[in-house]
């Protein structure tokens, strides 16, 4: 029988495991630190554990990473990995570096069932959810690659942020996503601050508040339209949870924690959602719901077989200016990793 990965067990599960083995529970913290603070790849490294305990761990679990099937680095240093898990399923993840920090964009499902028309991943049918361990392992592979496990002499961290914006809709896999985000942000281990983790959803309205309350991470909503008529044509989920329902949940989330801003992702699609009327409609909507928000205006990244075209820079600027004047920050996101299909909405792993 194939051994289970120990990566993805939370502290509670490790405690139960050690208790069932008749071991003292103070070992949980030691094991946790070896796995998630030091990035140990073998149980033999865990020298402050007894030989017996190490052997027992070795007999029952692995610390192995997914196989790196392919890696590409774009002209702008964006790094894309194609990873394969034990059952042969593959996903992509991306590291987007800035000068002194950077974000790792992780996936939560193999494929996606949401079918957003502008998204390359959405054209790959959903195969399965990723486990909590498989979600956490993506960030661990990035740390392995960039040598960012703690060392006594170098505490620099370039992998500073996590964005849950890769393949899949996180709120369709919420149990594993909650567990994974809590492991990634745990202060005894990987310790990425919750304020540096952003989860993006296409708008599964009833689950938004619950997941954010259980993880404390930041919220981004893929909005991409200023009214339901347009959004229905771009995102089938809008027929289930429309803009009004999403904004009501967003408002609820902000009422609980007044310091939180919401990011609205807005893909600029030529002739579809990029007019000044659309911008005005958006402003009205957010003012009506009293939502404090930032927009991320995303130039559309074409992928093979899609019909959409990016808005002209003039239209993007006019759109951003209107939002800015109304008091909403609306930076235009610089497309990263376009040449290796690593930019927003371009991920797909079906090239088996
Ligand atoms: S945008 Fe997100 S939710 Fe929509 S199809 Fe792509 S991966 Fe799925």
Describe the structure.
This protein is elongated. The protein is built from 10 helices and 13 strands. With 352 residues, the protein is α/β, with parallel strands linked by helices. The protein has 2 domains: 59 residues, Orthogonal Bundle (DNA polymerase, domain 1); 274 residues, Aldolase class I (TIM Barrel, Alpha-Beta Barrel). Iron/sulfur cluster binds next to loops.
In short:
By secondary structure, the chain is α/β, with parallel strands linked by helices. It is 33% helix and 17% strand.
Name the beta content range. Answer: 15-25%
Known CATH architecture of the largest domain:
Alpha-Beta Barrel
Q: Any idea how many domains?
A: 2
The name CATH uses for the topology of the largest domain is TIM Barrel
> Helicity range of the residues?
25-40%
- Mean pLDDT rating: 92
Instruction: Count the beta strands.
Output: 13
Secondary structure tally, helices: 10
Which consecutive residue ranges, at least 5 long each, have pLDDT under 50? none
The CATH homologous superfamily of the largest domain: Aldolase class I
Shape: elongated
């Amino acid at each position: 029988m194939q051994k289970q990965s120990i990566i993805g067990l939370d502290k509670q599960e490790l405690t139960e495991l050690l208790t069932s083995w008749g071991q003292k529970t103070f070992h949980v913290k030691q094991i946790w630190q070896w796995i998630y603070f030091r990035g140990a790849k073998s149980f033999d490294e865990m020298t402050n554990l007894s030989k017996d305990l190490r052997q027992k761990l070795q007999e029952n679990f692995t610390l192995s990473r997914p196989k790196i099937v392919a890696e590409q680095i774009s002209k702008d240093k964006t790094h894309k990995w194609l990873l394969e898990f034990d059952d042969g399923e593959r996903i992509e993840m991306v590291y987007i570096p800035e000068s002194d920090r950077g974000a790792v964009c992780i996936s939560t499902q193999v494929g996606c069932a949401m079918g957003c028309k502008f998204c390359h991943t959405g054209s790959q049918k959903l195969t399965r959810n990723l486990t909590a361990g498989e979600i956490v392992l993506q960030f661990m592979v990035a740390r392995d690659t960039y040598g960012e496990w703690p060392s006594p002499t170098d505490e620099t961290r370039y992998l500073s942020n996590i964005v849950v914006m890769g393949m899949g809709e996180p709120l369709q896999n919420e149990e594993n996503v909650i567990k994974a985000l809590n492991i990634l942000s745990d202060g005894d281990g990987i310790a990425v601050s919750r304020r540096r983790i952003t989860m993006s959803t296409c708008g599964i309205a009833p689950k938004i508040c619950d997941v954010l309350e259980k993880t404390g991470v930041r919220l981004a909503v893929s909005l991409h339209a200023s009214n339901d008529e347009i959004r229905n044509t771009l995102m089938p989920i809008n027929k289930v949870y429309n803009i009004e329902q999403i904004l009501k949940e967003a408002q609820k989330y902000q009422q609980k924690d007044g310091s939180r801003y919401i990011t609205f992702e807005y893909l600029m699609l030529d002739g579809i959602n990029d007019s000044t009327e659309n911008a005005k409609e958006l402003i009205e909507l957010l003012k009506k719901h009293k939502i404090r928000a930032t927009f991320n205006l995303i130039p559309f990244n074409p992928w093979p077989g899609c019909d959409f075209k990016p808005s002209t820079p003039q239209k993007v600027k006019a759109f951003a200016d209107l939002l800015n004047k109304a008091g909403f920050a609306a930076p235009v996101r610089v497309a990263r990793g376009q040449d290796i299909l690593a930019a927003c909405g371009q991920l797909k792993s079906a090239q088996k």
